[in-house]
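Incident review: delayed structure delivery

Summary: a single-chain prediction request sat in the queue longer than the usual turnaround. Root cause was a stuck worker, restarted by the on-call engineer. No data loss occurred. The affected request and its eventual output are reproduced below so the record is complete for anyone auditing the incident later.

Affected input:
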Amino acid sequence: MKDKLKKLKSGTDFRGNAIETDGILDFTDEVCAHIAYGFASFLRNKITNNENLTIAVGHDCRISAERLKNSFIEAILEEGINVIDVGLASTPAMFMTTVNFNCDGAVSITASHHPFNKNGFKFFTGKGGLDSPDLDFIIENSDKTENIEKKGELDNANYMKIYAENLREMICKQVNADDYLRPLRDFKIAVDAGNGVGGFYAKKVLEPLGADVSGSVYLEPDGTFPNHMPNPEDEKAMESLKKAVLESGSDLGVIFDTDVDRAACVFSDGKEINKNALIALMSSIVLKDSPGATIVTDSVTSDELKIFIESLGGKHHRFKRGYKNVINEAKRLNYFESIDSPLAIETSGHAAMRENYFLDDGAYLITKIIIEAALLKKEGKTLMTLLQGFTEPEFAREARIKINKEDFKDYGNSIISELEDYCNQTPEKTIVAKDSHEGVRVSCPSQQGWFLLRLSVHDPILPLNIEGHSEDGIKNMAKFVFEFLNKYEDLNLNKLLELV
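Output delivered after worker restart:
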């Protein structure tokens, strides 16, 4: 069983097939039970008061959710732990049950933006989401506890109602409109939930505050995702939102991923506010209240973003890819280095704010943006004014270079180190960034762009990201990297060749 769980571990989640696909079913009832046993052991060992433990369990809209939830809950109850079943819920809301319900732990059953046949488990305590070593503990302690004298008790609660109320109260309080309870009465906002969990935001948050949400699409949860995957990084999903905004004449468009821990938006003119632009927008909002603060992002953000953040008086701190890496780095800066760092945000749409427990919450992110839009409207301005001076690279490409070697980590890291040494030999052509926390990032002034070569955390892949202001520049940088990597026999360079 432990070997099975190790294969299902994906960073800080468990993930796999929850509906049999090609003869493979990862999340059997037995597997779900052993995950529950492991989480029970984790809570007993990590929570000081281990009497009367209570956890909340919720799930996204996947058609496998009920089966996984029932198997997990039954096993947790056998461990003598009380359970609050909150049913359909966003992942960030599950963390908030540790705040509002004072739960010792919480579990969100979700596979985020992955296909309908997938599912998974995310875990929280009052300190936040579990990290990779915590999942290792769960795996190693996933046997059933013997001699439990009393089963836990099961209760039900509609926590999403409370969660939506809290967001509405936040908007009312911070906008402080003349019509206090309807601060969004002059706004038309289109929400594209992609049939994920995020439809509640239109009907339970925006509409009660007076917003016109008639341009919204795909609000009803449907675990088969018949229209498009709920994913701000998906081109089809963003085109769907853009169409909804333009056809309805909405002031703003909002999109969430399946479990609402990520988000993006579209302005009234159809401009996508995603990736670098979303980070720029949030940086502009945050730096108003925290002048000179440090914004932590992942490693693939653009040079233009760094220039923009610095133009606002802020500091840009690039770190490793992976939303937990970005969040943990912001926590480290705040709590161990005494560096003011109120925002940790990844280009994927994960954004976590210090004021909100450093929880990556797409609904909270959008709420902050809508509050700012309402405040700007009082001044006769729009959100577009916050992005004045921000530019984006005209071209961005990625190639995922496969490593055909079992010990891929040592091999990949040695290649990155050798590339860094090589680029340092010609500083007039290739400038190695001093703030590379992951892989090697190289600026190429003659090509008006940069590239980043890094090693995937879990897979035998060297992702190469290239950005620039011309197709020729992109090709020249890709050619430079290809010529360097071509000597390594255990690399498959086919994807890179497509850029050359």
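Verification: Residues 153 and 479 are 63 Å apart (CA to CA).
Action items: add queue-age alerting; document worker restart procedure.
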